[in-house]
Amino acid sequence: MIPTATYRIQFRNGMTFDRAAALVPYMKQLGISHLYASPIFTATSGSTHGYDVTDANEIEPSIGGREGFDRMAQALKQAGLGLILDIVPNHMAASLENPWWRDVIEHGEHSRYARYFDIDWSRRLTLPFLGDSFEAVVENGEISVKPDPQSGKPALAYYDNFYPLTPASWQGRESEVLGLSDPAALIALHDEQPYRLMSWRDAPRDLSYRRFFEITGLAGVRVEDDAVFDDCHRLILELVHSGVVDGLRVDHVDGLADPQGYLERLRQQAGPECYITVEKILGKGEHLPAEWPISGTTGYEFIAALAEVLVDDDNLDRLRDAWHEVAGQPVDMRAELRDARLLMVDRNFEGEFTRLLQLVGEIAEREGVALAPELLRQALRELLIAFPVYRTYGRAQGLSAADQALLDKVVARVKASASAPDADALDVLTRILRGAVTAQQEAATFRTRFQQLTGPLMAKSVEDTLFFRQHLDLALNEVGAEPIPRGFSVARFHAEMKTRLERQPDALSGTSTHDTKRGEDARARLYTLTEAPELWAECVARWRQVNQTKVVFLNDGTAPRGVDTWMLYQALAGVWPPTLDPRDAAGLQALETRYVEFVEKALREAKLRTDWVDSNDAYEKAVLDYARHLLSPDNQDFLQDFAASLQPFIRAGLVNSLTQAVIKLTAPGVPDIYQGSEGLNFSLVDPDNRREPDFVALAQMLNDDTSAPLYSEQSWLSGQLKQHVTAKLLRLRQQKPPLFRRGAYLPLAAQGEHAEDVIAFARTHADDAVIVIAPRLVFNALDGTLAGPHAERWEATHIALPAGLAHRRYRDLLSGDVLTLEDSLDPGAVALNGCVLLISV
Questions:
Q1: Residue 743 near residue 768, CB atoms below 8 Å
Q2: Is the pLDDT of residue 616 over 90?
Q3: How is the chain split into domains, by residue range?
Q4: Residue 706 has what pLDDT?
Q5: Which helix (DSSP H) or strand (DSSP E) does residue 57 occupy?
Q6: Which label site among 487, 531, 573, 625 has the fewest CB atoms less than 10 Å from its CB?
Q7: pLDDT given for residue 788 in this prediction
Q8: pLDDT digits over 462-508, tens only?
């Protein structure tokens, strides 16, 4: 069953199955068809997200266990709502709490689970969870042999962790081993284990298992093996087959060895009716492989497409000039992207790169190719950092025609670049990736490893490095966004929606998720910076002057620098609550806690003057103190100016928010409402975006009579108007599923004075039609207030209607009025700040 709309709920952190069951009436009233649950299977103790699964066949006890889950499922069924589960096939927790992983630690290659994890068994299993080398922690007396509190067996005890000893190393001499304290004897005992305890700092260069991105606590799982797939999906498939679960969201499908093979098996096992989507980031112009038996992605590309509508392309260069002036020099984004990718290859993923290079050398030797290792290294490095998309999808038999064409394009670009490597070395890599070598099995292994590495390299270099370094407009630094500057246009958005309808009409369309860099309404507000670049630049210059006394001079430069402040003020502008009074000390304190946590993460993710690996305490302290000062109740000169100056950005941002929501709810795709985002979501990056919304307030707001305050300033500022419109459109989707699932997408042309300030389209199916007109670029048109319909603004603008839409009666979804349209539509006659929603009657 294809959902008409989903509602994502984050479990854990206080959200239990019983609490979710209590929200079912609210979701039903809102117009949701399916609850979309974050991972619910047993994870590490205290997990805040559930992606660190320790038992894929048990439901997390701390959120209600199987009994609580069944109660929630029953409540959903009684209300006629479905359930979608977020599943994690790519990795599990590399934790002693994971019985499979623990068994592998104890028994090594002889464990029945040794092949469940993606481990290189040519050497001992590396466990990078010490604060220093094994020898150093032994010398410091931090490791001893004690009975494991759970099993009673001897274990290497490191603080609260008990690493089991392999039986052959202690059986028959248990009393001798227990209490062992001599450093040499401890080192000798450690050498007998199938694992090697090591410092966490050594993980990037020396790891024997595939990890999830850079997270050593998450070990790759080999679901390409039939037995592993079966054991990892036993409970998942039981829930699907029993009718309790209607759909599955597959986390990080690009991490799998063979995504197509996995999805084919999942589809075969789950059945044709199961709704399946995948977390997959598509580049501009990239499409899912047509062979994948799924409904589509989880919608990051939809978020990126919305920028086409809400960015003022005509003013973007002026904003860029202002940013460059603060930075002190123009920024070459291609060079910055290359630097970020090189950092990932050379440092953060050094071990994965070294393993690939080793495979290349072995294959080249077998093929009789005599090339210096350094030439192969340079060629591999350049090929990896040149990949424009997350990955190709070659299988054991080689690359598809489409992937071969992509590879040829990338190779040609590398050969023509200023840093072109040796052509023969690059040709060797190309032949290996294509499988045009005699060492077919080795080539297939290399291809798989290469494809599993390009995705993490892309994600960590762009989303988690470049986007924290370059701050032209933070709204553009979103998951799925393009790192290189380009133009934005409504025409491109229309083209993308037509393609979306053709290729993945049942994919999720998100605007906020648990992984977005900021909430949808913060992003909508920050888009408005492109409409008023000079005003924003003036504000930043004034605020920097007001707070100049808090800038600190360090050995490595001032802190914060001008480019840092551009980011700090912009991030604060995005998260600032619309109605926060600058004199509200409690409100400022609550905001400061969230804001400072974000700033610390942003500084470390940028990896410039500080890092997660080696933090620069002096720099961090200086910038965090500056950030705290911004929100100090004593800093009223700044706070009053900031709050007042932000008002036009707040108002225009709220109009953007409504436009964004209306498009999501009417364009091709299945709208996904992230918890609380039917109201206003001004969150920052995780963990801030995973905070639980005020569901009580949301339910009360939905139940309030919204007919009177529909045009009021308060209804905009509280999020009630957005929630009200969302509910109306969700209910309409339930009434007319074919219209929104398969209905044609028709761009409509605006003419007149404000033609560029609206986006207009229609959806049609059989006799049904809905006309959507939404405002854009209204920063200079709101006259200091959101109240009222602002109909006069649109009097000189009209929308031409094609034959299929003209000469018909429509109902205005916002007012309930019925009207007859001839061959054009005047938005001023029916618009709420330019927003028109008409359904044929």
A1: yes
A2: yes
A3: 6-90+223-279, 99-216, 338-463, 522-647
A4: 52
A5: strand 53-59
A6: 487
A7: 66
A8: 999 999 999 999 999 999 999 987 899 999 999 999 999 999 999 99
Interatomic CA distance for residues 627 and 599, integer angstroms: 8
Band (710; pLDDT cuts 50, 70, 90): low
Instruction: Report yes or no: 512 and 683 within 8 Å, Cβ to Cβ.
Output: yes
Beta bridge partners of 828: none
DSSP string for residues in 63-93 = GTHHHHHHHHHHHHHHHT-EEEEEE--SEEE
Q: Which residues pair with 219 in a beta bridge?
A: 92, 211
Quote the CA–CA distance of 610 and 617 in Å, as a whole number: 8
Percentage of residues in the chain having pLDDT higher than 70? 99
Contacts of 776 (CB under 8 A, 6+ apart): 309, 310, 490, 656, 659, 757, 758, 759
Listed in sequence order, the residues at least 6 apart from 50 whose beta carbon sits closer than 8 Å to its beta carbon are 11, 12, 38, 39, 40, 41, 43, 60, 86, 88
Structure confidence at residue 485 (pLDDT): 78
Single out the residue of 286, 268, 491, 518 nearest to residue 393, CA to CA: 286
Give the DSSP letter string of 332-376: -HHHHHHHHHHHIIIIITHHHHHHHHHHHHHHHHHTT----HHHH
Distance CA 405, CA 383 (A): 15
Instruction: Count other C-beta atoms under 10 Å from residue 422's C-beta.
Output: 16
pLDDT(249) > 60: yes
Would you place residue 785 in the very low, low, confident or very high pLDDT band (cuts 50, 70, 90)? confident
In eight-state DSSP terms, residue 119 is B
Compute the distance between CA of residue 805 and CA of residue 824 in angstroms, rounded to an integer: 9
Q: pLDDT (tens digit, 9 = 90+) per residue, 356-375?
A: 999 999 999 999 998 999 99
Paired tokens of 831: 């618009």
Separate counts of helices (H) and strands (E) for the chain? 30, 29
Residues in contact with 323: Cβ distance below 8 Å, sequence separation at least 6, in sequence order: 331, 471, 472, 566
Q: What is the pLDDT of residue 53?
A: 98
Residues 6+ apart with CB under 8 A from 498: 745
Count of CB atoms situated within 10 Å of the CB of 688: 18
Q: List Cα–Cα distances, 492 to 287, 474, 500, 502, 620, in angstroms.
A: 16, 21, 12, 15, 41
Residue 726 near residue 664 (C-beta atoms within 8 A): no
- Residue 461, token pair as written in the block: 């270099």
Contact criterion met (CB below 8 Å) for 310 and 660: yes
Helix (H) or strand (E) holding 769: strand 768-775
- Which DSSP state fits 631? T
Helical ranges in 508-561 per DSSP H: 520-527, 533-546
The CATH class, in words, for 99-216 is alpha beta
| Span 564-579, pLDDT tens digits | 999 999 999 999 999 9
For residue 124, is pLDDT > 70? yes
Tokens of 758: 């609206």
Which two tokens mark 568? 């700090």
The residues with which 154 forms a beta bridge, in sequence order, are 147
Q: Could you report the per-residue pLDDT of 165-214, keeping only the tens digit for each?
A: 999 999 999 989 998 889 999 999 999 999 999 999 999 999 999 999 99
**Could you say which architecture CATH assigns to the domain 522-647?**
Orthogonal Bundle (1.10)
Q: Which two tokens stand for residue 713?
A: 């300033």
Give the up-direction half-sphere exposure of residue 709: CA atoms within 13 A in the CB hemisphere.
Answer: 17
Per-position b or e across 146-172, b if 16+ CB within 10 A of its CB: eebeeeebbbbbbeeebbbbbeebbee
**CA distance linking residue 693 with residue 631, whole number of Å:** 23
To the question of domain 6-90+223-279 being in CATH 3.30.470.20, the answer is no
Checking phi first, is residue 684 left (phi over 0); if not, alpha (psi -120 to 50) or beta?
beta
User: Sorting pLDDT into bands at 50, 70 and 90, what band is 270?
Assistant: very high
Q: Any residues with CB less than 8 A from the CB of 188 and at least 6 apart, and which?
A: none
